[in-house]
Structure formats: structure tokens, C-alpha cells
Design a protein that fits this description.
The chain is an alpha/beta fold. It has an eight-stranded parallel beta barrel with strand order 1-2-3-4-5-6-7-8, surrounded by six helices. α2 crosses α4, α4 packs parallel to α5 and α5 packs across α6. The longest helix has 17 residues.
Length: 273
């Protein structure tokens, strides 16, 4: 049965979230029993081939969100609002979120940051019945302004900004907050201070949940190892080896064999000559 927002907030066991982008990934995640699926705008890097998340559009998110919803009808689905669709004010955020919810069937949206504009947007959305997941620490949409894709919150100023941002998101109505690439001790402090779940990625074991990207945990890209992600399989290597075997057999006329071919009666064939 799909988890509700109160279920997630009150969960005693750590929450398991996977970032997936399509129907097969969502089916696998649901079959494995994850608690939440995030349709992340990281799809720009992972499946669309961009070098950042900035080019991802609302239409992209809706397209992939629909596919994930079809693949995981009984799992709580969160869809990222992409860059530029919510930072410009609560009105734009509301319009973007309504499109996502109506057109994908998602259960919630996610926004990065805790600026006054974003906090206002979180307040407006949650007051109007749209659950919002917050996100502090490393924020890929604005990573350039943060000095690149690197750990955040290591000094006092950065740590306080991250803590205050998470607290402000909770106050604005966020039902959970993603903590990305921050020191484990800071993540533990934030988790202890918040009543809503923290979802960690590169934030240590003391968060109330964890998230990994489907492609990262399955090792779908060879050699693309990240410190914050554990590889539970090497499917990229397995896929490449399978494709190489297929190519060899085609070139040697070993595939398709009789077991992969269809037959017809000799008398039917004879009438064609």
C-alpha cells in the first residue's frame, strides 16, 4: 500500500528512496519495496546527456514523471521542479506544481534551497494541499554559485546556513528535507533538530532516510563511481559484455539460431518459387 505523508513523517524505520526516471526503473524500485521514488531533475545528466540539470524543462519532468507513475502505481512518487520554474515566486511555483501533480499523478514535488522566495513558495503550496520535499546542502541546480559540486557546510557559516535552511523549510511546511553532501555530524544535528524526516545522500547514516540514484547503485555507467554512492551491482559491465557477445554472434552467423527462428511448411515455400 502506498505510504501517505503522515506515514512517512511518523515512520520508525529508515526510509528508502530511489531516484528513477522511467517505467522499468520504477517497476524495479516498487518490486523491491522502496518507500519513495524521486523523479529527479538529475535525469538531465543521467539519461538526457546534459552536463548539468539547468537545461531540464518542466515538460521533461512531466514526461518522465508519467512513466514512473505508470511503473510504480503503489509507491509514493516525488517529482523535482526544475530550475527556473519556482525560484521566481510563489505564483510560478504553484502553477508548475499543479501541472506536475495533475499531469503525472505524483504525490509531492521537491524544491531546492531555502531563500525567502522558496520558503514562501513552500508555504503557499503546502497550504493548498501540495506536499513539498525540501533540499539543502549541495544543490545541483545552483551548484555554480556554491563553488561547484562539492561538500557543503564544513565551516561554521555554511553549517549554520544549512541548519537554518532545513529548520525554515520545516516551518514553511515541508514534510521532509533532503540533505546532500554535508558532513555526517552536521546531518545528525539537523536530523535531531527536525520533526520531519531527513533524507540523506552523502550525509551519513544518522538521517531518517537515504536516497541513491538508480543508475549509480546499479553501476549502469562503468567507471562513474561517486563517493556518496555505493554500487550494489555492475550492470554497466554486464550490459556491455552482453552487447559484445550479441555482436560477435551476429557477425559469426550464430544468432539467430533455430530456437529463435520460425518455420513454414515445405509445400507453402515451394509455391513461392
Amino acid at each position: 500500500m502506498k505510504r501517505s505523508v503522515p506515514d512517512l513523517i511518523q515512520a520508525a524505520d529508515p526510509l528508502v528512496m530511489v531516484t528513477a526516471y522511467d517505467y522499468p526503473g520504477a517497476r524495479h524500485a516498487e518490486a523491491a519495496g522502496v518507500d519513495l521514488i524521486l523523479v529527479g531533475d538529475s535525469l538531465g545528466n543521467v539519461v538526457l546527456g546534459y552536463d548539468s540539470t539547468a537545461p531540464v524543462t518542466l515538460a521533461d519532468m512531466i514526461h518522465h514523471g508519467r512513466a514512473v507513475r505508470r511503473g510504480a502505481p503503489e509507491t509514493f512518487v516525488v517529482v523535482d521542479l526544475p530550475f527556473g520554474t519556482y525560484q521566481t515566486g510563489a505564483g510560478d511555483a504553484m502553477r508548475s506544481a499543479v501541472q506536475v501533480i495533475q499531469q503525472t499523478g505524483a504525490d509531492a514535488v521537491k524544491m531546492e534551497g531555502a531563500t525567502p522566495e522558496i520558503l514562501e513558495a513552500v508555504t503557499v503550496l503546502t497550504r493548498n494541499g501540495i506536499p513539498v520535499m525540501g533540499h539543502v546542502g549541495l544543490m545541483p541546480q545552483t551548484a555554480t554559485a556554491q563553488g561547484g559540486l562539492k561538500v557543503q557546510g564544513r565551516d561554521e557559516e555554511g553549517a549554520r546556513r544549512t541548519l537554518d535552511g532545513a529548520l525554515a523549510l520545516q516551518e514553511a511546511g515541508a514534510f521532509s528535507v533532503v540533505l546532500e553532501a554535508i558532513p555526517a555530524r552536521l546531518a545528525r544535528l539537523i536530523t535531531e533538530r527536525l520533526a520531519v524526516p531527513t533524507i540523506g545522500i552523502g550525509a551519513g547514516v544518522h538521517c531518517r532516510g537515504q536516497v541513491l540514484v538508480y543508475h549509480d547503485l546499479l553501476g549502469l555507467y562503468e567507471g562513474d563511481e561517486k563517493k556518496l554512492a555505493k554500487r550494489y551491482a555492475e550492470l554497466g559491465r554486464t550490459s556491455r559484455e552482453a552487447l559484445e557477445a550479441y555482436a560477435r554472434e551476429v557477425r559469426a552467423r550464430e544468432f539467430p539460431g533455430k530456437e529463435h527462428s520460425f518455420v513454414m511448411k515445405d509445400e507453402v515455400l515451394g509455391k513461392l518459387y
